[in-house]
Amino acid sequence: MSKISNDEDTASHTESSRTEAVGPTEFYDPIIRSELKKAAVWIGMITLVVAIIFLAQPILLIVGGLVLAAMLDGGARLLGRILPWPRGILLTIVILAVTAFLVWTVIFAGSELVGQAISLKSTISSQLERIGVMAEESGLAYTSVDLENLGQQIFNSVGRVTAAVTSAIGALASIAIMLVLAIFIAAEPRMYERGVAWMLPLSEREQFYGNMNKIGFTLRRLMAGRLLGMAVEGFGTWILLWIGGVPLAALLGILTGLLAFLPNIGAIISGILIILVGFSGGVETGLFALGVYIFVQFVDGYLIVPMIAKRAVDLAPALVIGAQILFGTLFGIIGLALADPIIAMIKVALESHSERVRNNHKNAKKRILEA
Fold it and tell me: Using CB atoms within 10 A as the burial measure, which of 29, 155, 161, 210 is most buried?
């Protein structure tokens, strides 16, 4: 009897286990797996936002390294069209040429630029004081002190990362880190691409390589246009202001060239400086300086940028300015400088994804029609 009872218990237990539903700890349940995927997406988004907030500076330094790497890579590719040498030698020539230019600028023009920088500060202060006096005479309640405080408040309100890069040591350290990253990435770009692709599923790797090629091409064209624009604006402003007898022509030319890296906003800042210094030498000199600024901006905006940069990526001016305001407020000077390349990379990635989705829909419709 005992044996029969045990057999009956075993049979009933087996039958009941067959009818039991999957428990909440079983991850192969489709509902549980679906909910876990949703939770993972939200957790990943929250983690990404927190990482961007607290790791803004290193992330932007890495992005800056990628942008500089694209510039070095573009220089090596351009030089390779003339010299059929190995890539390592071409990249070394580009790096040495850039280093030699910077050293030459510091050695031969450093003392003159330091003296002009001191004069620029006093000139801008005196011009702001004149504007304040004219405003008071016109009945406006603004003084030169108000204008200086306004500029200081704007500068102090720029971003979370500004404090880390406003000092000379911080700026040099940030530039050095980006240069080191750029050199390593430009030396072996395919190695880093394969390293990132290794973490992706096999089905996504071909799309990833295609996106990287498009982004690299876009950054090279964008930075080529930017560098050519900086050279034209810098040297053009320098020579034309010097011919017209505008004070501090060399310093204004270098500042205009450097600020040309910041599209739209950089042109506004350099224009204000040129006009203020120009009118410090008289009305005729000020009008000549204004004409030089308009001419140089016309050449850059209507000849150089459409010829080089717009062929690779066409960014709306309002989009670029909005991105600069947002990135500058959130991430400081570095974010302001990198807003344009970041928006360009995002635009290329979104366009590539949209093209992929469109092709998938076309292929699916074609299969349905064939069936």
Answer: 161
